[in-house]
Specification:
With 302 residues, the protein is α/β, with parallel strands linked by helices. The protein is built from 13 helices and eight strands.
Length: 302
């Protein structure tokens, strides 16, 4: 009998559980690539359009997972996933479970342990694009867990977006997800705070955004040199020949004072100032700003 997950097979039957906006996007991408699709959702009518497009609706979770060798879960958290799957564990035995929920690395590892105890092949994952971009060129989905399971399933996963395997630790995908979202929110908050500063003087946000986003960010902040300097983070080497932490603290102090003068929220720059001050107190005053990494690697002090 041919293995339905073997290399080159791109019509593997798949079950999708959870039909929120992201689950619907995953299901439609699978249908678009010809995968026989079974769906289940607490609110059954959310799947009406998919049924009209060719999906089969299961009455129960156990029926849904029994219909396919691969089940993709796309729910709000691991608690909900566990609640739904425990009664269907026997039906999942010997099949593949791909969990695309949001949560923490510890939760992902616990889910993998539960799956292993029930002889369920398990991959944990993270979707790094909004629903409209699922299945589109340039979209990326992250996976972690058993490499052999990933490689067998890769042709199926590829229709959802570029599948990237991060390692055998099942917690890596959600860890990357948290880290990348951390970068997104920190960058967005930086842009919003900077815009608040200049608009406090009557400058239109559109005028500032052109300079900030089209020139400053790609040229000064997120240029290729940051990738090159990542090796310095691994080595703990922060030469201060171009600029020191003390020089950067001076700039951060000015940003905080300017925020206060302009009547703009000052907690964000003040926190950055305090972290830089801690780095200097710990002996990194003559190093460059990347030495802040040594502070951020540890829990915050109270």
């Amino acid at each position: 009998m041919t293995n339905p997950l073997s290399s080159g097979q791109d019509r593997t039957p798949v079950t999708v559980i959870g039909l929120g906006p992201m689950g619907l996007a995953l299901a439609r991408a699978l249908l678009a690539h010809g995968h026989p699709l079974t769906i289940w959702n607490r609110t059954a009518e959310k799947g009406d359009a998919l049924v009209a497009e060719g999906a089969r609706r299961a009455a129960t979770v156990a029926e849904a997972v029994s219909a396919s060798p691969v089940t993709i879960m796309c729910l709000k958290d691991y608690e909900t996933t566990h609640e739904l799957l425990v009664p269907a564990a026997e039906a999942l035995r010997g099949r593949v479970l791909v969990n695309l929920n949001s949560g923490t690395p510890a939760q992902a590892r616990a889910a993998a342990e539960w799956a292993a105890a029930h002889e369920i092949a398990y991959l944990d994952g993270a979707i790094m694009v909004p629903p409209p971009l699922v299945g589109q060129p340039g979209s990326v989905l992250l996976y972690s867990g058993h490499q052999a399971v990933f490689e067998r399933l890769q042709p199926t996963l590829a229709c959802l977006g570029d599948p990237r395997w991060l390692g055998a630790d099942p917690g890596l995908a959600v860890l990357y997800n948290a880290a990348l979202l951390d970068l997104m929110y920190a960058t967005m908050n930086g842009f919003l705070h900077a815009t608040a500063l200049v608009t406090s003087a009557g400058v239109p946000a559109t005028e500032f955004a052109d300079l900030a986003v089209n020139w400053f960010m790609p040229t000064v902040v997120m240029d290729a040199s940051l990738v090159e300097q990542a090796s310095d983070l691994d080595k703990g080497d922060y030469p201060g020949d171009v600029g020191t932490m003390e020089m950067n603290l001076n700039a951060l102090e000015h940003i905080t004072r300017t925020s206060v003068e302009q009547g703009v929220h000052s907690d964000q720059p003040r926190l950055m100032q305090e972290i830089a001050g801690q780095a200097i107190a710990e002996g990194y005053g003559g190093n460059n700003y990347l030495a802040v990494f040594e502070i951020l690697k540890r829990p915050a002090t109270t």
